[in-house]
C-alpha cells in the first residue's frame, strides 16, 4: 500500500518536473536575447511560446536568432561591409595606377619611335 502511494507521488513529481523543465527550456533563447539586449527579444519570447505548441520545432531557430545579435557589433555585417569598401577603394587606386602606367608606357614608346631610325623596307633596298 505504501509503495503504491510512493509510486504515485514519484509519478506526479516526474510529470511536474518535466512540465516545468520544458517551459524553462523554451525560455532559453529569450534569456539569451535579454542578456544581449536583442532588438527582437519580444518576438523571440512569443515565438518561444508558439514553439511549445509545435513541440519545440522552432526552438533551434530561435536560439540561432537570439545568438546572432551582439550589442557591440550588431548583426556582424558592418565589418564585412567596411572590408568590402576598403577593398573597393584599393582596387580603384590600383586601376588608376595601371592607367597612369599605361599612359607612361605609351608615351615612352612614342618617344622611342621618334628617336630610333626605321630600318629600310624592301622597296627602299631595291632603289639603292
Automatic annotation (TrEMBL):
Pfam families: DUF3302. The keyword Transmembrane applies. The chain crosses the membrane at residues 6-25, 46-66. Keywords: Membrane, Transmembrane, Transmembrane helix. InterPro entries: UCP028770 (IPR011223). This is GTPase. The lineage of its organism: Bacteria, Pseudomonadati, Pseudomonadota, Gammaproteobacteria, Vibrionales.
Amino acid at each position: 500500500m505504501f509503495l503504491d502511494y510512493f509510486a504515485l507521488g514519484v509519478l506526479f513529481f516526474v510529470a511536474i518536473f518535466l512540465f516545468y523543465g520544458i517551459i524553462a527550456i523554451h525560455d532559453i533563447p529569450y534569456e539569451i536575447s535579454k542578456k544581449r539586449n536583442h532588438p527582437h527579444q519580444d518576438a523571440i519570447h512569443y515565438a518561444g511560446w508558439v514553439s511549445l505548441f509545435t513541440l519545440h520545432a522552432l526552438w533551434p531557430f530561435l536560439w540561432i536568432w537570439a545568438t546572432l545579435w551582439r550589442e557591440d557589433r550588431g548583426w556582424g555585417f558592418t565589418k564585412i561591409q567596411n572590408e568590402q569598401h576598403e577593398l573597393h577603394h584599393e582596387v580603384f587606386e590600383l586601376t588608376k595606377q595601371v592607367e597612369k602606367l599605361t599612359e607612361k608606357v605609351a608615351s615612352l614608346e612614342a618617344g622611342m619611335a621618334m628617336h630610333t631610325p626605321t630600318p629600310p623596307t624592301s622597296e627602299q633596298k631595291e632603289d639603292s
